Amino acid sequence: MPPPNQGGAPGKTGSASKPSPVVFAVANQKGGVGKTTTSVNLAASFAAAECRTLLVDCDPQGNASSGVGVRRGSFELSLYDVLIGRAALKEATVATEVPLLDVVPATQDLVAAELELVDADDRATRLRQALRPHLDGYAFVVLDCPPSLGLLTLNALTAAHRVLVPLQCEYYALEGLTHLMATIDRVRNAFNPELTVEGVVLTMFDGRNSLTHQVADEVKAHFRVFDAIIPRNVKLSEAPSHGKPALLYDAQSKGAQGYLSLAREILDGPPAAAADPKKRQRGDAEEEPPAEATTTTGARARDARPRS
Ligand SMILES: Nc1ncnc2c1ncn2[C@@H]1O[C@H](COP(=O)(O)OP(=O)(O)OP(=O)(O)O)[C@@H](O)[C@H]1O
Ligand SMILES: [Mg+2]
Q: Which residue of 42, 65, 156, 179 has the fewest CB atoms within a 10 Å radius of its CB?
């Protein structure tokens, strides 16, 4: 895979040719939809494309850290230390086994950060402040969010340029997106006007299940959905127990290949319709669905739309 062109990412900085890093938040407050699997494997795929990438584990579960082989006890500083101002992001950054991929790990301590920062005026911008001076040399930063819309996700959305939404094609899949899109709107208005929804990644896709197709069609009616679809693949679920992204565990597996395709699609840039600045600002790609239309996923179509 070639390094990025200027279509999808990274963009330009003030200097004539130096690309600026693109920060992705991988977010969906629904649990177990593939956020961490997407963060780890997309970050590894960017690195495999010779794009230096930083993975930031924003979840106290620490699954993104262990997923790239950085296990509890093997590091001294974590994102907790960064957010409470005890360490610079650089000091908490650890190299991984994947060339060009670094990680800022997380531990359960991160739960305490949410409580400790509750009265801090800059509580929503701590991650952005920590990240900005540290971005030099990276093409991509991938922020793995926890399954909530609390302070940690808020920090990730405030620090990000673009949001990737992993979505499992199941009943009620769209329902939680209402809250996510409303949160993204609030963050955009309050802290981060440039935040865009890059698109929805269909995860754990099982083409034999007819509901899967129904849900996928419905999501496509309201959001930009990546052509690269991540299949349900056992190698993706086995790889974390070996502390490896799927690319190192089984590069030929359909899961690893799916994430390589996703990275390639991002590097190549969005299709013309989705690149329309107005549509991308809202994060959608299609026309307004009929008001109050009830969807096959049980969510009201109007509610499921990202709002501008
Ligand atoms: N495409 C896939 N095929 C098979 N298993 C998968 C796939 N994607 C994720 N999994 C498995 O599904 C489970 C949930 O995935 P993951 O941890 O990535 O979700 P998550 O959204 O990060 O969860 P949480 O909300 O708890 O942070 C994990 O056991 C993971 O290994
Ligand atoms: Mg996770």
A: 179
